[in-house]
Design goal:
The protein contains four helices and five strands, in the order E-E-E-H-H-H-H-E-E. The chain is α/β, with parallel strands linked by helices.
Length: about 140
């Protein structure tokens, strides 16, 4: 479930039930720096919203999707930054991804991975699709 505030309040007022989710992770290595790109795609059902909602108004649906996508991006970035700074542990498998796609680059980076990992720039792009809104309830 994705719960977020669509009205800008502190407490969540919109919930989306996740139907299907996929993630693609890639990297680039330029100027002796690793940059990771994460793309998520999530299909959801709209369960509840405090926003005025018209199921046939595409702008209304797009607004909810965009707010949910920003929330997902923010949460993913926050978790990655916390793990990088506080734990310095590559639990996401970025090093493994590099090793599998470019073993010679990994040999070059592996001895210093503990120093490289905390400074990796990670870009997150999320897309949330509301594919069904038949369960809408006003909160």
């Amino acid at each position: 479930v994705l719960a977020y505030s669509s009205t800008g309040e502190d407490s969540p007022d919109t919930t989306l039930e996740i139907s299907k989710s996929s993630t693609k992770i890639s990297y680039t290595y330029e100027d002796e720096k690793v940059k990771v790109s994460i793309e998520t795609q999530t299909d959801t059902f709209l369960n509840e919203t405090a926003e005025p909602f018209d199921a046939v108004d595409t702008q209304c649906i797009l607004k909810l999707e965009e707010k949910a996508a920003k929330m997902v991006e923010s949460n993913v970035k926050r978790v990655i930054e916390k793990v990088q700074k506080d734990y310095n542990s590559d639990i996401f498998g970025f090093g493994s991804m590099i090793y599998k796609s470019n073993p010679s680059l990994w040999r070059q980076l592996s001895d210093h991975w503990d120093e490289i990992f905390p400074s990796i720039q990670v870009d997150v792009h999320s897309k949330v699709n509301i594919v069904n809104s038949s369960y809408i309830k006003k909160s």
